[in-house]
Write a structure and sequence with these properties.
By secondary structure, the chain is an alpha/beta fold. Helix content is 43%, strand content 23%. A five-stranded mixed sheet has the order 1-2-3-4-5, with helices on both faces. Strand 1 and strand 2 form a beta hairpin. Helix 1 runs parallel beside helix 2. The longest helix is centred in the first third of the chain and has 18 residues.
Amino acid sequence: MNSENIQFVKTPQWIYVQHWGDNSLDFVTELWNQIAVTCERENCFVVLGVGHSSQPLSSSVSLAHERIFRRFGIDKRYLIAWVEAEAEATANIRLAEQILVGKEITNGKLFFDEADAAQWLSARVKNFARGN
């Protein structure tokens, strides 16, 4: 896994992250580790992420998201809008979303369009910052 495959930009509203590459357990673990470290460092827990995945997320990696999020302290403090730019790589991403949101581990939603994700985040970020 090469960290050059992950890029971060701090915007006035959120942390913008993009990744390119596979969806192996090692890559996904490192991705969320870097997201957690960046959010803590910037004291910003609002994330707009865009994945440019070269392969679909496996069922086992989808299920591992709960453990990964708990390991790195990604919890209800976070508001995450995640976009998968590669339509053919979307298998099982919805499963990870359902687990994380359904178990109230974090606040988030999956999108297939970056503009929709940004609009969703913008509409929620003020209330979220107030704890609503």
